[in-house]
Design goal:
By secondary structure, the chain is α/β, with parallel strands linked by helices. It contains 15 helices and seven strands.
């Protein structure tokens, strides 16, 4: 439970307790109705006024729907591919061939995403979504396969950042991410990216150079985590909330600066409270965008992608 959610959780617990006791008691039913109205009002008050750092906390919520939930709900016939053909396998990023559900257009795609895991075992195995160089070399392999077979690339971003250990640098982390960026910039197929949770640093950027970038309302995208920024700039990690405000890392901030195309609304209370609704929202946008880009001439796609990134920052300069 996040600290700012405490009043909401307390109301939910009181309502649940009264439901267990209520039976046919009209008095208790009336009290339940009153508390449910108060709960709805509290949710609207809290979640309509989240600070940037509170949105970061929501983006990190362990119950937020992850890659596997989106994959299972939005695609059929997923066929996972593994390994970078140089060093090994990295469970922090997964991908393969899939087909969108018929209700979303049924297009064959290459689906790639960060995998934070669903429990302690899978989270540790996937390094909490922080990929190593072999993970990003694997991602490049997927980009090249998509180009070879003429399939749209669909990316689901949810990572605190690429793994920052010494071994990662020794194995060429920076080069692996830069190769991914070059491969995406030249991809002759539609590239669609969604930030569904955390979007940290180059680990996210390697999967964000796209024809369309959508962000869930309570996700974030930033060159650095607020805590790390506060440690460097202020020499005080406790000033993370101040750093988050200055970084302009929320979906609304990024939309205002022309970095993302669309802010996708989350259910009241965040995606972790109603994951099916959040997944449906992303799915509807995915089907719409892929259908709109499918059939576009490769040269037009690449030229448009180039122009898109040349324009970033123009609003800030003006």
């Amino acid at each position: 439970m996040l600290e700012f959610e405490r009043p909401i959780k307390e109301l939910e617990e009181r309502i649940a307790g009264l439901h267990r006791l209520a039976g046919e008691s009209e008095g208790l039913q009336a009290e339940i109705s009153r508390l449910e109205e108060a709960l709805e009002a509290a949710k609207r008050r809290v979640y309509s006024n989240l600070s940037p750092y509170q949105r970061v906390q929501v983006a990190r919520h362990p119950a937020r729907p992850n890659l596997r939930a989106y994959r299972d709900a939005l695609t059929d016939d997923f066929y996972e591919l593994s390994g970078d053909r140089l060093h090994g396998e990295d469970a922090a990023v997964r991908g393969g061939f899939a087909r969108l559900k018929p209700s979303l257009g049924g297009h064959p795609i290459v689906l790639i995403g960060h995998d934070k895991g669903a429990d302690v075992k899978t989270r540790v195995a996937g390094n909490f979504g922080m990929a190593h160089p072999e993970g990003y070399r694997k991602v490049k392999r997927f980009y090249e396969l998509a180009a070879r077979f003429g399939l749209p690339i669909v990316l689901l971003v949810d990572t605190p950042g690429a793994f920052a250990g010494r071994q990662a640098e020794e194995r060429g982390q920076a080069w692996a991410i830069s190769d991914d960026l070059m491969a995406l910039s030249r991809a002759p197929v539609p590239v669609v990216s969604f930030v569904i949770g955390e979007g940290g640093s180059g680990g996210a950027l390697a999967m964000c150079l796209a024809d369309y970038v959508g962000m869930l309302e309570n996700s974030y995208l930033s060159v650095i985590a607020p805590e790390a920024c506060a440690s460097i700039i202020f020499r005080d990690p406790s000033r993370a909330a101040e750093a988050a405000e200055a970084l302009k890392l929320t979906a609304r901030d990024l939309k205002d600066h022309g970095i993302v195309d669309e802010v996708l609304p989350e259910p009241l209370g965040g995606a972790h409270n109603e994951p099916e609704d959040a997944i449906e929202t992303v799915g509807n946008a995915l089907g719409r965008v892929v259908s709109g880009l499918t059939g576009t001439d490769p040269e037009t796609l690449i030229a448009s992608r180039h122009d898109r990134y040349r324009r970033i920052g123009e609003r800030a300069i003006q």
